[in-house]
Amino acid sequence: MDKKMINFAVIGCGLMGKEFASAVGRWLHLSGLNFKPRIIAVCDLNDDAMKWFTDNLDTIKYTTNDYQEILQDNEVDAVYCAVPHNLHKKFYVDIINAGKHLLGEKPFGIDQEANQEIMNAIQNNPDVLVRSSSEIPYYPGSYEVFHKVKSDDLGQIMEVEAGFWHSSDLNPEKPINWKRIQKTNGEYGCMGDLGLHVLHLPLRFGWDLKLLGASLSNIMKERPNQNGEMQECDTWDNAVLLCEGSSEGNSFPVTVSTKRIAPGHANTWFIKVYGTKGSIEYSTQNPKLLRVMEYEPGGKQVWKVEDVPHQSAYESITGGIFEFGFSDSILQMWAAFCEELIYGKENMSQPLYCATPEEAQKSHALFTDALNYYKSEVNS
Ligand SMILES: NC(=O)c1ccc[n+]([C@@H]2O[C@H](COP(=O)([O-])OP(=O)(O)OC[C@H]3O[C@@H](n4cnc5c(N)ncnc54)[C@H](O)[C@@H]3O)[C@@H](O)[C@H]2O)c1
Fold first, then answer.
1. What's the pLDDT tens digit per position in 160-191?
2. Is the peptide bond before 357 cis (omega within 30 degrees of 0)?
3. Which of 176, 286, 307, 334 is 20 to 30 A distant from 124 in Cα terms?
4. What is the DSSP letter of 251?
5. Cα(187)–Cα(184) distance, integer angstroms
6. What confidence tens digit (pLDDT) does each residue in 20-39 have?
7. Which residue from 10, 11, 13, 16 has its CB within 8 A of the most atoms of ligand 1, so it is best to mutate?
8. Residue 352 to residue 137: CA distance in whole angstroms
9. How far is the centre of ligand 1, averaged over its atoms, from the C-alpha of 194 (Å)?
C-alpha cells in the first residue's frame, strides 16, 4: 500500500522529541494505516541532541540551531515542538503563522497571556491543524473510560477523581532542571507540567469545571544545580484542586491532583468516575486492570475486574494478551494526530482526537484560578 507521507520537523530534541522519533520508527507496528510521518529536519540548540536523531534516522535532510530555517522550508508539512514552556508562545505562534501544522506540548504557553497569543494565532490560521500532546487517554484502559462515559451508561455522574502523580522529586538530591524553575516552567509548576494530562478526558466529556478551592505545596524549596550548589526551587511540587463539575444541569465534585511528590508513584495517571447506574476506575499504576461496576436499582453492588486487551484506538500487530505501555500510547496519539491531519476530525476512523487548543485554554483558566485562589484565600 502506498502511504501518504507527512513530512515533519522536530523542534526540541530532548526527552519528548526522541519519543516522537521512536514512534515514527515503530510505525510498522500499526496495522492498516495509509499514512505515515517522516522526520526530515530537526532543530535544537544542543548539537549532541540532534546527533542522536541523525544517528538513528536516515530520513533527516538537515539539522539546524535556528527554528526559523524550518519554518521557511516548503517541504515541511508539520512540526512537533517540544521545548521549555517559556518558549511555547514565540515558537508556536511563529510555527502557526508559517502555515505549518503543529503538535505542540502542554501547557501550551507558560501562562494564560502566552496561551491567549497562541489562540489568536490559531484563529488567524484556520487551515492549520493545532493539537496538544496528551497520550495517556490512548491506554486501552483510559480509552475504555472514554467510551464508557461517552455512552452515558453511568447514569447521573456523582463524583470524579482524576490525577497524575510522580515521585522522583521526593529525592532532595535530584538536580534542579528547567521544569523546577518558575522562569522556564512557569508559575503553574506541577499543574503546567501534569495538568492537561489530567483534564484532557474530563474536558472532552464536555464537563464545565469551576474551581472551588486549591491547595498548592512547594515542598522542596531548593535543589542542587549541576555544580552541586543549592539553588532556589520555586515551583509548586503538588497541587490538589477541588472543582464543581457540571454537565447537562447536573453538578458533581471533581478532584484534580497533580503531584511531583506522591511517594512511590512513577507516572501514575488515574481517573475514577462514579455514577448512579455505573462506575469505572482506571490507573496506569496497574495498566491492564480496569474496574467497572454496573448497577441496577435494588441489585448488588459488585465491581468487575478485567485485564484489558492490548487494543487501543488504532489496531496494531500486537496480540490482545500482551501488555500496553507508555511508548504505545505515544504511538497511538501520533496516529490520531496524523489521521486527523490527513482526513479531518469528522472523518477519523475512531473518535478520540488529540487534545485541542480550546481544552488547553480551559486548563489555563483553571490553573490561573488556582494560583489566584491560593494567593487570595490561603497565602494572603
Ligand atoms: N507529553 C508528555 O508526556 C510530556 C512529558 C514530558 C515533557 N513534556 C513537555 O514537552 C516539552 C519539552 O519537554 P522535554 O521533557 O522534552 O524537555 P527536554 O529538556 O528534555 O527537551 C527540550 C529540548 O529543547 C531544546 N531547546 C531549548 N531551547 C531551544 C531553542 N531555543 N531552540 C531549539 N531547541 C531548544 C533543549 O536543548 C532540549 O533538547 C515541554 O512542554 C514539556 O511540558 C510532555
1. 999 999 999 999 999 999 999 999 999 999 99
2. no
3. 334
4. E
5. 9
6. 999 999 999 999 999 999 99
7. 16
8. 8
9. 14
**Do strands 303-307 and 62-64 pair parallel, antiparallel, or not at all (unpaired)?**
unpaired
pTM summary value: 0.97
- 355 pLDDT above the threshold of 70: yes
- Over residues 213-248, the pLDDT tens digits come to 999 999 999 999 999 999 999 999 999 999 999 998
Q: Is the pLDDT of residue 126 over 90?
A: yes
Instruction: Please provide residue 146's backbone torsions phi and psi, each rounded to the nearest 5 degrees.
Output: -55, -50
Cβ within 8 Å of residue 323, ≥6 positions away: 287, 288, 310
Q: Is the pLDDT of residue 105 over 70?
A: yes
CB atoms within 10 A of CB 300: 7
The sheet with strand 35-43 has its strands ordered as 62-64, 35-43, 4-11, 78-81, 101-104, 130-132
d(C-alpha 306, C-alpha 320), whole Å: 13
Alpha carbon 273 to its chain's center: 20
Q: What does the pLDDT average to over 343-351?
A: 98
Q: Residue whose CA is closest, atom 9 of ligand 1?
A: 105
What stretches of the chain show up as alpha helix (H) in DSSP? 15-25, 47-56, 67-71, 88-97, 112-124, 140-150, 182-185, 190-204, 326-343, 357-373
**Residues near ligand 1 (Cβ within 6 A):** 11-16, 43-46, 49, 67, 82-85, 87, 105-106, 133, 135, 193
Which amino acid is residue 76, in one-letter code? V
Q: Which three cell numbers stand for residue 158?
A: 456523582
Residues 6+ apart with CB under 8 A from 223: 172, 174, 175, 176, 180, 230, 231, 233
Q: Which of 10, 20, 44 to mutate to test the pocket of ligand 1 (most atoms within 8 A of CB)?
A: 44
